[in-house]
Backbone:
């Protein structure tokens, strides 16, 4: 596995336990770990020199032991009034995308919007789904746990650069969704470590129930996730209600066909007693037929799952198109009549999965990188 280039461990990838161990090896008492983590997650201080309650020798040790600047913010971009994007650059020049989405809440209107952060877990993706740009260029590397956590710290800093309070700032968000670039369950250990830090009392204190992990359907890892004590929410990128259709657009389906995937999802929801979401991108003349809707209904009912229908966002260079509004409605209607809890997203950008998928796609990596390099000289902020 290719690892991030920095030889020093990233401070934001340390758990209370691992940090305590490292401190002990250095002859330091355990309470110092709490103090350091308070500086990082409560006060949002990244520079060890500014951790003024710590003895100078300890501050020097932190600087020498850890990487406290895993990625620089090189670009922020607002593509519409509802979505914004941060582009982070680690030393190996890989680009990490993080999306912030402000979407009006269903039935409430514009006065109260739902704020969501969409984070990435890999650079590129190895799974090659035919409709998705993340898979187009293939997999480059996994993100380290500290690089996953750093995305959230950067968002907090962007939200309010004047108030140095990471936890409080993050608490103003409703959800974190792991739907950015990459397949989260293919980077399982780093993902779990990062989310443990995000959830922990000594970390960012963000509730597991407000964190959704989206997967293209890695059945064994779904079962593994079911056994974790933290109750994250699960979303499955289904996009096909039969093996025939799903295998056409998602190569993973050949490895884990529906007969293997669906029982794994069932095991997860039984364990956590919570509704999973089935994401279903509607692609014209591929999976938008009444037959697919009729095949999807019993699957959703059996799993007690909510179906999120997402009209496809066209991707340059890919042949797929969004179905007509009429076809989208007809598909949703079949599900509703079959008593399936269903949402059909109409406006692009207002759907989390679509927004994460789409923004990423709009960023042609080479162009963004060139622009980022120009801008990096003037922004250059690190967490
Ligand atoms: N690898 C994971 C998470 C990242 S993809 C997964 O596949 O679930 C996040 C979501 O964006 C998925 O539901 C994916 O299917 C969706 N997506 C990708 N390309 C899209 C597009 N062009 N239009 C709409 N949604 C898209
Ligand atoms: Fe990878 Fe998810 Fe895109 Fe498929 S949809 S290529 S699994 S990021």
Residues:
């Amino acid at each position: 596995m290719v690892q991030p280039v920095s030889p020093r461990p990233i401070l934001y990838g340390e758990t209370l336990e691992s940090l305590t161990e490292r401190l002990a090896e250095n002859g330091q008492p355990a309470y110092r770990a709490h103090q350091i983590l308070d500086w990082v997650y409560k006060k949002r201080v990244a520079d060890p020199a500014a951790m003024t309650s710590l003895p100078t020798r300890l501050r020097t040790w932190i600087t020498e032991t850890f990487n406290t600047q895993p990625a620089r913010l090189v670009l922020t971009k607002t593509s519409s009034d509802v979505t914004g994007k941060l582009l982070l650059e680690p030393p190996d020049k890989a680009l990490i995308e993080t999306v912030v989405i402000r979407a009006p809440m269903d039935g409430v209107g514009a006065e109260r919007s739902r704020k969501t952060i969409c984070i990435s877990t890999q650079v590129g993706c190895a799974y090659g789904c035919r409709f998705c740009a993340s898979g187009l260029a293939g997999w480059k590397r996994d993100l380290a746990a500290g690089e996953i956590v750093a995305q959230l710290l950067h968002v907090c800093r962007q939200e309010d650069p004047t108030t140095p309070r990471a936890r409080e700032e993050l608490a103003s968000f409703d959800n974190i969704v792991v739907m950015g670039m990459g397949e989260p369950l293919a980077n399982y250990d780093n993902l779990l470590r990062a989310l443990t830090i995000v959830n922990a009392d000594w970390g960012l204190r963000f509730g597991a129930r407000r964190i959704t992990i989206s997967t293209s359907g890695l059945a064994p890892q779904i079962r593994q996730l079911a056994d974790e004590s933290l109750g994250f929410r699960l979303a499955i990128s289904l996009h096909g209600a039969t093996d025939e259709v799903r295998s056409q657009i998602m190569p993973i389906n050949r490895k884990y066909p529906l007969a293997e995937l669906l029982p794994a999802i069932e095991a997860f929801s039984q364990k956590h007693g919570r509704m999973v979401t089935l994401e279903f991108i509607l692609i014209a003349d591929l999976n938008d037929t009444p037959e697919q809707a009729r095949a999807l209904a019993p699957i959703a009912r059996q799993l007690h799952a909510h179906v999120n229908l997402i009209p496809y966002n066209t991707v340059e260079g890919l042949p797929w198109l969004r179905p007509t509004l009429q076809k989208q409605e007809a598909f949703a209607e079949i599900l509703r009549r079959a008593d399936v809890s269903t949402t059909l997203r109409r406006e692009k950008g207002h759907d989390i999965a679509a927004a994460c998928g789409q923004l990423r796609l709009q960023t042609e990596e080479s162009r963004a990188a060139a622009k980022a390099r120009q801008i990096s000289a003037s922004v250059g902020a690190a967490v």
Remarks:
- The pocket of S-adenosyl-L-homocysteine (ligand 1) is lined by residues 131-132, 179, 183, 214-216, 237, 279, 281, 310, 312-313, 315, 353-354, 356-358, 361 (CB under 6 Å).
- The longest helix spans residues 145-159.
- Residues 24 and 97 are 36 Å apart (CA to CA).
- The first strand starts at residue 72 and ends at 78.
